[in-house]
Design a protein that fits this description.
Blueprint: H1 5-26, H2 35-63, E1 66-67, E2 70-71, H3 85-92, H4 99-108, E3 111-116, E4 119-124, H5 127-134, E5 141-143, H6 147-153, H7 163-176, H8 179-198, E6 206-208, H9 209-226, H10 231-246, H11 259-282, H12 289-297, H13 302-332, H14 335-351, H15 364-368, H16 371-384, E7 392-394, E8 398-400, E9 403-405, E10 410-413, H17 415-419, H18 442-445, H19 466-483, E11 489-491, E12 504-507
Parallel strand pairs: 4-10
Antiparallel strand pairs: 1-2, 3-4, 5-7, 6-12, 7-10, 8-9, 11-12
Helix pairs in contact: 1-2, 6-11, 8-9, 8-19, 9-10, 9-12, 9-13, 10-11, 11-12, 11-13, 13-16, 13-19, 14-16
Length: 513
C-alpha cells in the first residue's frame, strides 16, 4: 500500500458523508421514494469505506512494527509529523521525567518503539538491554546527539568523538582523574575552594543555593583545567557556561534572541579564553592546569584542546552542581539522614583539630571512611541523577531477542526508568540512603558494572570523571553540614526527581561549636 494511502482514506471518510448529507438537504429525493431505497444508497457508500478502513487498520497493526521486513519492538507512531516528541519533551522537562516511558512500558513492555526527534526510536527501561547497548559502544552502537549539542560541545570533545579519537580523548581524561591524581592535586584544591566559599557567608544572609553550587562547580573545574583564575574571571566563565548550557538542546536557529545563537556566542568567548591560556602556557606565563599538560604532551591541536576542555567543563560543571543541589534538597526532607550525616562528619572533624586549635585538611583515608556520605551520594544520584537517558544510534542491523533494530535507528537507554523501577529498587520514589547498607543491594550498587544503577553511564563511555564528582560532592556535604544548620532551610518551586530545581533559598546560620 502506498505511503499516502491512509490520507486518501481519511479524505473518503470525512467527505463522503458530507456529500450524502448535502445531497439530501439541497436535492431531496423524489416524493414517494421508499425509505429502504434511501438507506441502501447510504450504505452503498458506507460499506466499502468500512471495508477499506478495517483492512488498512489490520494492515497497519500487523506492519507498524515492521521496517523493511524487520520486527521492531512494539510501539505506536504518535501524532502525524511530530510523532511522540511533544509527550517526550513534556515528560523529560517535568518533575517526573520517566512519566512518558512508564506509560509506554505499561502498554508495550520495557523495550518499545516510538517517534521522537523526527526519527524512529527504540527506547528501553530494561536494565539488561541498557547494559547491552552501553557495552557495545563503537561496535553495534555509536553516540548520537542533536545538531545543537554537537555544534556546541565540538567535534573533538570526549562526549561526541567517535572511534579512535574517542578512545584517545577518554584515556587522557581518565589519566587526568586517576586515584593518585585525586589524592595529590584535587583533594587539597577542592577543600581550599570549599573553605573559601563557606567562610564568605554572613550570619542571616539569604543564599540562592543553586548559584552557590554552580559557582563552586565551575570554580573547581576552571582551576583544575585552566589553572588558577581570578574571582572575576571565574564569575565570567560561570555566566558564559550558563548561556552555553541553555542552548545545548535548543533548536539550531542562529538568529539573535534564540538560545542556540546566544550559546554559540558564549562558546566562541570560552574558546577564545582557552586559546589565550594555551598561548600564555607556551610562553611560560601561567601554569595552565590541564591545558598546560596537554600543551606539553603535544598530542592534540589547539582546536582539539579547546573542545576537550569545553567538554570537561560542561560535564563537570552541570552534573556536579546539580547533584550537590539535589543532595541538599533531599536531605532537608530527611532529618534522620541529616543527623546521621552530621554525626559522621563531626566525628571526622574532631580528629582534625590540631594543637593550634586549627582544623587540618581532610585526608584521603578520612574521605574513604565517609560510608554514610557515600550512601547519600548514591541515593541522590539514583533518585535525582542528571544522566537521565543516553542517545545512541544503531551502526548496523542489531538483533536482540526476537527483535531487529534497523541500522540508523535512534536507541535510547532510559537509565532513570530503571533507577525508579519499584521491581528493582523497593520504595523507588523515596529518598532512602539506608537502602545501600543492605547486603542484597551491594551488587546493584556497583555503578561501574551494575545494570540496575548507572548514574555515570557505562561501557566505553563510562564517565571518566565519576570518582572526581563523588569526591567533590562528599567534600561539599562535609563543609556544608558542619558549617550551617539545616533547620533554617526552606525551598520553593522545586521539581523533584528531574534535572530541574528552579529555586532553593537558605538562610545562613553558622553552627556553634
Amino acid at each position: 500500500m502506498p505511503a499516502n494511502a491512509i490520507f486518501r482514506i481519511q479524505t473518503i471518510i470525512v467527505t463522503t458523508p458530507t456529500i450524502i448529507i448535502n445531497h439530501r438537504h439541497h436535492q431531496p429525493p423524489p416524493t414517494g421514494t421508499p425509505l429502504g431505497v434511501k438507506k441502501m444508497v447510504v450504505w452503498s457508500y458506507v460499506i466499502p469505506v468500512l471495508v477499506v478502513v478495517i483492512y488498512v487498520a489490520k494492515s497497519l497493526t500487523s506492519k507498524r512494527n515492521m521496517v523493511a521486513g524487520k520486527r521492531l519492538p512494539p510501539g505506536g507512531r504518535g501524532w502525524p509529523l511530530v510523532g511522540d516528541s511533544i509527550s517526550w519533551y513534556n515528560s523529560v522537562a517535568s518533575s517526573h521525567p520517566t512519566t512518558f516511558v512508564q506509560q509506554q512500558v505499561l502498554r508495550y513492555g520495557k523495550i518499545f518503539s516510538c517517534n521522537i526527534f523526527g526519527r524512529r526510536a527504540v527506547v528501553s527501561a530494561d536494565p539488561v538491554f541498557n547494559r547491552f547497548v552501553m557495552h557495545n559502544e563503537g561496535k553495534l552502537f555509536k553516540s548520537s546527539y542533536p545538531k545543537s549539542f554537537r555544534d556546541l560541545v565540538g567535534a573533538n570533545g570526549v562526549i561526541t568523538a567517535q572511534g579512535d579519537q574517542h578512545r584517545k580523548l577518554h584515556m587522557i581524561a581518565s589519566n587526568m582523574m586517576r586515584t593518585d591524581t585525586l589524592k595529590s592535586r584535587f583533594l587539597t584544591d577542592i577543600q581550599l575552594v570549599m573553605h573559601q566559599t563557606f567562610t564568605n557567608f554572613h550570619h542571616d544572609q539569604t543564599i540562592l543555593l543553586q548559584d552557590v553550587c554552580r559557582k563552586l562547580a565551575i570554580n573547581l573545574m576552571v582551576n583544575q583545567l585552566l589553572g588558577v583564575l581570578s574571582e572575576s574571571e571565574v564569575g565570567e566563565m560561570a555566566e558564559l557556561f550558563s548561556a552555553f548550557v541553555d542552548g545545548c538542546l535548543s533548536l539550531p536557529i542562529s538568529l539573535p534572541g534564540f538560545a542556540y545563537h546566544t550559546a554559540m556566542n558564549a562558546r566562541k568567548n570560552i574558546i577564545r579564553k582557552i586559546k589565550k591560556i594555551i598561548v600564555e602556557t607556551r610562553h611560560g606565563d601561567c601554569d595552565g592546569g590541564l591545558v598546560g599538560r596537554l600543551v606539553e604532551e603535544g598530542s592534540l591541536s589547539d582546536d582539539a584542546i579547546a573542545d576537550f576542555i569545553i567538554n570537561l567543563l560542561f560535564a563537570g560543571n552541570e552534573t556536579t552542581a546539580k547533584t550537590m543541589l539535589f543532595a541538599i534538597y533531599f536531605l532537608t526532607n530527611s532529618p534522620d539522614a541529616v543527623n546521621q550525616l552530621l554525626e559522621e562528619h563531626e566525628n571526622i572533624r574532631s580528629k582534625r583539630l590540631n594543637s593550634r586549635g586549627e582544623i587540618d585538611m581532610i585526608t584521603w583515608e578520612e574521605y574513604k571512611s565517609m560510608s554514610f556520605t557515600q550512601n547519600v551520594i548514591d541515593e541522590t544520584l539514583r533518585l535525582g541523577g542528571i544522566a537521565i537517558w543516553l542517545m545512541r544510534e544503531a551502526k548496523e542491523d542489531v538483533k536482540y531477542e526476537d527483535y531487529v533494530i534497523p541500522k540508523g535507528s535512534f536507541v535510547v537507554p532510559f537509565l532513570s526508568a530503571v533507577h525508579h523501577d519499584e521491581n528493582v529498587h523497593e520504595g523507588a520514589t523515596t529518598f532512602n540512603p539506608w537502602r545501600w547498607m543492605n547486603s542484597e543491594n551491594q551488587d546493584k550498587r556497583n555503578w561501574r558494572n551494575s545494570p540496575f544503577y548507572s548514574p555515570f553511564g557505562g561501557g566505553a563511555r563510562l564517565c571518566p570523571g565519576a570518582e572526581l564528582a563523588r569526591l567533590q560532592i562528599a567534600l561539599f556535604l562535609h563543609y556544608f553540614i558542619i558549617s550551617y544548620r539545616f533547620d533554617f532551610f526552606f525551598h520553593a518551586l522545586i521539581l523533584v526527581c528531574g534535572a530541574k530545581l528552579r529555586r532553593i533559598e537558605c538562610l545562613s546560620s553558622p553552627r556553634q561549636d
